[in-house]
């Protein structure tokens, strides 16, 4: 009895010693690196993936949290791979004994005993299971992992590191590549496929062996029905679902903006973009440019007026296009804005008390030193309201206002709006208001956002968490409203709906290099640019013809309800010309009592067609300019008598304008 007791004590002591030794052995285990690089991601304002980037060796490995995974996948994974996962401590004794017994009975390995924790151990060390040393190491590491990590953390490691074929690693990358969707909501068939692939990731790759992938998926579905994880009918229905036959491309939405975000640093970036709107505008841009010269590019920016957040930004129709330099983000390229700066000039003139929308202004030949501006169509319209001059986008009236304001004042206003104008040469000149400066589309949308916001500047932001740079007022809210009201009176492009819902302005730069359209409704401000990135002229390209229809399409996508423009502020002066103060009824030289008189031919004269028509003047300041029906037919005339080279039949208006802007005109009939 004493010997038996001694033997029992020795045995218990030996077991305890072995247990303690094992405990010390496991505790001394040095864990491998537990944190692994994941693909940099760019997401939209709601957390939806816009674009992801490879990590080293072109590998896709995506960050994933438990709440991003369909619970059905967890149930199926544990039931199929390790049904006692939540009970064992890293090694499943029952599975081990069963595997050993089956191997002895059949003379070969029939089933494995590897737990999910042991698989994680192998993945962490990129180890093998073919040799007993490797298996023992996995057992030791699995026991150590169970002591230092929770079950949820172990599952997280599995979902991040499990191989899914080729350069795809981890559940989220696999779901995006093989299913084309996030793993948050999976069908039984989809979940089963994602459970099956890591067991033989290369031989079951859907793009190389779709049949093997489908067979493995169907086996998982059968097992899940037997384990009552899913119903039999669900399993049968899942087996009839088509299996993927190839890879889905990773999302590449807003590629230019994504590149811009990643340039700030790796990791995750959440932008202010709205994925649905961004995708719609990208599709619209590609459709709009289809069939056009492939060397052309287009850029679009949409932002919220009040928030200043960019909701959509398209740098080119096709990011990968080589011919059209699609890789160039044309929302940030400096280009000449053409006539799109004119609304700013008029708003500043209203602010300074130089003009009112009903003020009369001269559209007549004028010269400032050596600079003699011309209208785009070469026609002069005489005296007309400022409102109409802006709507017609005439050059001479806006140059007169720019000269009165001073180009430096215009540059200051641009900078207050957050625009960083690029000038070639020295000080800005009068041509500044006609587009003689470099600006970006993003800056112009920011400027028009100030007009839409009642004259208050606000920097656009494109990454969540960024604070907009503080900007001051560009003009008073009454002046900004007046500009918007004038621009809302422009006729929309064909099929764009009734006028008055969008305030917009188009522009075409010198040489037809850039076509622009910028505008806003009651909620959004947007801009469209079209041209060649290399700056080559595009004959026939006009902002009104090419960019304006696109602008209305863009605003329609952003705001299908068409939020109306705001009413005028209470301080807005809403009167006709007769109700204006005397100094605001006309701008610049008056035509009421001109010194210049056209004495011959007399009013209503009937003259023979084809004959030489003499013209005689009295008064005025040379040089003179002679016009027929608004078109210049002779200029730099010094004498008081000359002839008019007019031909054709019918009525003709002859006009003479002197150096001070005074004019005389007569109506004659050629018979």
TrEMBL record:
Keyword Methyltransferase included in the entry's annotation: no
Regions annotated as coiled coil: none
Catalytic activity: [GlcNAc-(1->4)-Mur2Ac(oyl-L-Ala-gamma-D-Glu-L-Lys-D-Ala-D-Ala)](n)-di-trans,octa-cis-undecaprenyl diphosphate + beta-D-GlcNAc-(1->4)-Mur2Ac(oyl-L-Ala-gamma-D-Glu-L-Lys-D-Ala-D-Ala)-di-trans,octa-cis-undecaprenyl diphosphate = [GlcNAc-(1->4)-Mur2Ac(oyl-L-Ala-gamma-D-Glu-L-Lys-D-Ala-D-Ala)](n+1)-di-trans,octa-cis-undecaprenyl diphosphate + di-trans,octa-cis-undecaprenyl diphosphate + H(+)
UniProt pathway annotation: Cell wall biogenesis; peptidoglycan biosynthesis
Keywords: Carboxypeptidase, Glycosyltransferase, Hydrolase, Multifunctional enzyme, Protease, Transferase
Pfam families: BiPBP_C, Transgly, Transpeptidase
Enzyme Commission identifier(s): 2.4.99.28
Domain Glycosyl transferase family: 57-224
Occurrences of domain Penicillin-binding C-terminal (ranges): 591-666
Domain Penicillin-binding protein transpeptidase: 298-510
Family, as annotated: In the N-terminal section; belongs to the glycosyltransferase 51 family.
Family annotation (NCBIfam families): PBP_1c
Record's protein name: peptidoglycan glycosyltransferase
Gene (name only): pbpC
């Amino acid at each position: 009895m004493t010997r038996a007791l001694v033997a029992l004590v020795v045995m218990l002591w030996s077991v305890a010693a072995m247990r303690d030794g094992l405990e010390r052995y496991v505790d001394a285990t040095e864990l491998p690196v537990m944190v692994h690089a994941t693909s940099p991601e760019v997401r939209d304002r709601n957390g939806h993936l816009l674009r992801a980037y490879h990590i080293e060796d072109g590998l896709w490995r995506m960050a994933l949290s438990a709440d991003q995974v369909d619970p059905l996948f967890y149930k199926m994974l544990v039931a199929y791979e390790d049904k006692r996962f939540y009970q064992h401590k890293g090694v499943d004794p029952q599975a081990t004994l069963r595997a050993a017994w089956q191997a002895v009975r059949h003379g070969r390995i029939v089933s494995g005993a590897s737990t999910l924790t042991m698989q994680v151990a192998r993945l962490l060390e990129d180890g093998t299971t073919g040799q007993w040393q490797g298996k023992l190491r996995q057992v030791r590491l699995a026991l150590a992992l169970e002591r230092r990590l929770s079950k949820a953390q172990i599952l997280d490691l599995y979902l991040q590191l499990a191989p899914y074929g080729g350069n795809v690693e981890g559940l989220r990358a696999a779901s995006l590549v093989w299913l084309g969707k996030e793993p948050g909501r999976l069908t039984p068939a989809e979940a089963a496929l994602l459970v099956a692939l890591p067991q033989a990731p290369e031989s079951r790759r859907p793009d190389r062996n779709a049949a093997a992938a489908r067979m493995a998926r169907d086996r998982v579905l059968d097992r899940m029905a037997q384990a009552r994880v899913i119903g039999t009918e669900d399993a049968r229905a899942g087996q009839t679902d088509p299996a993927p036959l190839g890879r889905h491309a990773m999302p590449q939405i807003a590629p230019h903006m994504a590149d811009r975000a990643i340039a700030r640093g790796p990791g995750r970036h959440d932008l202010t973009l709205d994925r649905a709107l961004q995708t719609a505008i990208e599709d619209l841009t590609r459709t709009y440019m289809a069939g056009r010269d492939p060397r052309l590019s287009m850029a679009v920016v949409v932002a919220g007026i009040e928030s200043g957040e960019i909701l959509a930004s398209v740098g080119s129709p096709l990011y990968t296009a080589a011919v059209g330099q699609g890789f160039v983000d044309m929302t940030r390229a400096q280009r000449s804005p053409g006539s799109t700066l004119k609304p700013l000039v008029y708003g500043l003139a209203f602010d300074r008390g130089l003009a009112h929308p009903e003020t009369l202004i001269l559209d007549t030949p004028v010269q400032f030193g050596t600079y003699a501006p011309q209208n785009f169509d070469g026609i002069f319209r005489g005296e007309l309201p400022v409102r109409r001059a802006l709507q017609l986008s005439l050059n001479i009236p806006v140059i007169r206002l720019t000269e009165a304001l001073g180009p430096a004042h215009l540059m200051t206003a641009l900078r207050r709006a957050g625009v960083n104008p690029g000038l070639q040469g020295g000080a800005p000149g009068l041509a500044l208001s006609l587009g003689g400066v470099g600006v970006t589309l993003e800056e112009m949308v920011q400027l028009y956002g100030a007009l839409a916001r009642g004259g208050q500047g606000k920097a656009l932001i494109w990454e969540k968490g960024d604070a907009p740079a503080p900007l001051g007022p560009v003009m008073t809210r009454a002046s900004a409203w007046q500009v918007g009201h004038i621009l809302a009176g422009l006729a929309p492009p064909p099929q764009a709906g009734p006028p008055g819902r969008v305030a917009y302005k188009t522009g075409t730069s010198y040489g037809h290099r850039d076509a622009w359209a910028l505008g806003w409704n009651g909620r959004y401000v947007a801009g469209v640019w079209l041209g060649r990135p290399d700056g080559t002229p595009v004959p026939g390209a006009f902002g009104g013809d090419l960019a304006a229809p696109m602008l209305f399409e863009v605003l329609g996508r952003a705001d299908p309800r068409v939020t109306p423009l705001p009413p005028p502020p209470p301080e807005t002066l809403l009167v006709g010309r007769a109700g204006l103060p005397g100094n605001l009824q006309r701008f610049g030289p008056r035509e009421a009592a001109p010194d210049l008189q056209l004495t011959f031919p007399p009013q209503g004269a009937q003259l023979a067609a084809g004959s030489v028509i003499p013209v005689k003047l009295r008064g005025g300041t040379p040089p003179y300019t002679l016009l027929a029906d608004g078109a210049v037919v002779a200029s730099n005339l010094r004498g008081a008598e000359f002839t008019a080279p007019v031909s054709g039949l019918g009525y003709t208006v002859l006009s003479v304008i002197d150096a001070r802007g005074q004019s005389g005109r007569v109506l004659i009939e050629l018979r």
